[in-house]
Amino acid sequence: MLSFTKMQGTGNDYVYMDTFEKTIKDPVQLAIRVSNRHFGIGSDGLILLNPDPNADFRMDIYNADGSQAEMCGNGIRCAAKYAYEKGLVEPNRTELTVATGAGMRKLSLHLKGKQVETVTVDMGTPIFDPEKIPVLAPKKEKMISVRERAQGQDFELFCVSMGNPHAVTFVDEVDHFDVEGFGKILERAEIFPHHSNIEFVQVLDANHLKMRVWERGSGETMSCGTGACATAVTAMVKGVAEREVTVHVRGGALNIRWDETSGHVYMTGPAVTVFTGWIEEA
Q1: Do 216 and 256 share a structural domain?
Q2: Are residues 101 and 154 located together in one domain of the fold?
Q3: Under 8 Å between Cβ of 12 and 224
Q4: Structural domain of 52
Q5: Cβ-contact 95, 70 below 8 angstroms
Q6: Which residues are tagged catalytic?
Q7: φ and ψ at 146, to 5 degrees?
Q8: Are residue 151 and residue 114 in the same domain, yes or no?
Q9: Confidence label for 139 from pLDDT (cuts 50, 70 and 90)
Q10: Is residue 218 situated within a structural domain?
Q11: Are residues 162 and 74 in the same domain?
Q12: What distances in angstroms separate CA 77 from CA 30, 117, 166, 171, one per listed residue?
């Protein structure tokens, strides 16, 4: 039997396990099974916390279809809460370093009593180099934009990586937008060799953005932390948002700040435990 904790950050929910005292034989198939919302636990994927000699732990992310992601902004906040409250790090340590597929990330935990309530993540610097995003497009001095067509509609996609690939497009209204219909096509556009997360964004004002997201490997989710950062950075580069904004997602809100001095993007948001339990490994 494997113990698990289901957690969510602004509605982006994952099943969390650690390998500090046990091993996971087949994380790909386990991710597919636990993510099933009818026959499993139900989640956007599986996140494993593994020992790492150079960090407090390493976070490995498996999407609902078993594919791996480099980074997850909502997931890393919950992983930090898991590590702190499960005693995987020294007591009362509120500054953590986490190894991810996108590199090291530093986190600051904000407590309410003995529980982690919110977490600030240093998400690093946004990447605009097309080869590193990656996107098949010529290099430009500023943010790369490409045009793609889906279901007879043209989209201007602004491409950026926050450790994983994102394509942001602005729409007049997102609440009734066909995210699934357009998202599943744009995700797999030929210009994205590793596929891409797609953000559909409505600008409310210079300090508030509303976003819905189609995540590669999982479909539409309630939230995406790296996507919120990509959305904020894109809006800032385009001059329609200030350097600190609230990104409203279907599962809540995230505060995103792009520091002008360091160039780093900082994301602050909640981390919530939903329930714990046990599941057979196979």
Answers
A1: yes
A2: no
A3: yes
A4: 2-123+269-279
A5: no
A6: 72, 224
A7: -130, 160
A8: no
A9: confident
A10: yes
A11: no
A12: 22, 10, 20, 29
Distance CA 177, CA 123 (A): 28
Domain shared by 115 and 154, yes or no: no
Angstrom distances, CA of residue 104 to CA of 9, 54, 122: 20, 9, 9
Q: Is 106 among the domain residues?
A: yes
What's the distance, CA 166 to chain centroid? 10
Instruction: Examine residue 135 and state whether it is found in any structural domain, yes or no.
Output: no
Please report, as a single letter, which amino acid is at residue 55: A
* 122-138 per-position pLDDT tens digit: 999 999 999 999 999 98
* Residue-by-residue DSSP string for 18-59: E-SS---S-HHHHHHHHH-TTTSS--SEEEEEE--TTSSEEE
- Please say if the pLDDT value at position 281 is more than 90: no
Q: What is the pLDDT of residue 143?
A: 87
pLDDT above 90 coverage of the chain, percent: 95
When divided into structural domains, the chain yields a total of 2
The pLDDT tens digits of the residues spanning 164-207 come to 999 999 999 999 999 999 999 999 999 999 999 999 999 999 99
Contact between 14 and 78 under an 8 Å Cβ cutoff? The reply is: yes
Tokens of 91: 């007591």
In a domain? residue 19 = yes
Total count of residues recorded for the chain: 282
174: Cβ–Cβ under 8 A, 6 or more apart, which residues? 200, 201, 202, 210, 211, 212
CATH number at residue 90: 3.10.310.10
- Residue 105, helix vs strand vs coil: strand
pTM passes above 0.90:
yes
The pair of three-digit structure tokens given for residue 226, joined into one six-digit string:
């790296």
